[in-house]
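Comment thread on ticket #2218

A.B. wrote:
> Attaching the input chain for the structure job we discussed in standup.
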Amino acid sequence: MRMNCRRGFTLVELLVVIAIIGVLIALLLPAVQQAREAARRMQCSNNLKQFGIALHNYHDTFGKFPPGYLLQDLNGSNLDYNGTGSSWGWGAQLLPFIEQNALADSLGVGSQSLTNALSNATLVTLMKQPVQAFLCPSDTAPNPNTGHQLKKSSGDEPVATSNYVGNNTSHKWHSGGRLTGYGPGEGGGWSGPGAANAPTGIFWRNSRIGMRDITDGTSNTIAIGERSWRLNNPAGTQFVCDAAIAIGTAHNNEQLTIRHVLAGGAVRINFTNNECKYGFSSRHPGGAMFVLCDGSVRFIPETIDHTPTASGSSGSFNNSTFEKLLSRDDGQPIGSY
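C.D. wrote:
> Ran it. Output below, let me know if you need it in another format.
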C-alpha cells in the first residue's frame, strides 16, 4: 500500500521566502514614503494657496496686505505704542479670510490688544487650539509652541504653532542673523532703522504694503514661506528652528522676537545652524514651499543662489536670486530658480 507523504517547507526554502519578502519590502518602502511625502507636500501647498487667496481677499477689502504685526496699546487703539507686550500677527488678521471668523471674533483680533487678550484664561485656551491651515503635515512641531512664547503681564504663554512666516526682509541686521521690525522712518528700540536697515519685504510692524508698492511684480516677490520646528543634524543633535506662532508675536526687543511670525534672508533655506530660526526651512527634502504675492505657490530649492548680506554692508543688498525674491522694489531682474 502506497503511503501519501505530505511535504512541507524545508528550512532553506523558508529562509529564501523570508529573504524575498525582505527585498520586496526594501524596494517598496521608499516608494511608499515618497508617496506619503508627496501627499503631505500637496497639503502644505494647499495651505499656502489658501493664504495666498486670503491675502488677495484682504487686499480687496482694505486696499493693502495685513500688517506683519500690530503694535497697539492695551486698548487696541494706539498704533504708535512703543511698550512691551504681544502683538496680533498677520495670521490672526487673516483668520476671517480662511473661514475662521468665529475664532477671530472670539479673540477680538484688532479690537483689543493681544497683550490684553492674554489676560483672559478662556481666550488663552482658544489660542492654544491648533488651526490646521497653519500646520505643514511634514513637520514635527508640538502644539502649543514651547519654543516661541507670547509675553503677557504675568510671564510668558505658549500658544498654537504655525509653520508659516511672512517675508520681512531680504537682508540681515548688521552682522547678526536678526530681522528688521521697523519700517522706513519709524523709531526703534535699537540703532535704526534708517533707509539702510528698512525691511524690503511685505511684512513688519504696522506695515501697509499694497500691490502698488510691489514694483518688482507680484509674481517675483515672496509673501509667505515655511519654517520647520527642527532640522536634522548629521552630527546627531537637531538644529533648533522653533517654527512660528499662528496668531502673533512678542514685540519687546523686536529684531529678535518678531521671528515668531516673520522671516527673512538672514540665512539660507534649511540653514544648518540654530540661526535657522530667523529664516525659512522645512522637512520637505531639498527645499521649502512659498506663496508669492500673486498667489502662486512655488517649491524653492535650498540650493538657490543666495548670498546673505548684512544691512551694514556696502553695495547692493540684493546680489543673489533669493534676496531679489525677498525684495518688493529693488528693480533687479530675477533669473530661473
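A.B. wrote:
> Thanks. Noting for the ticket: The two ends are 81 Å apart (CA to CA).
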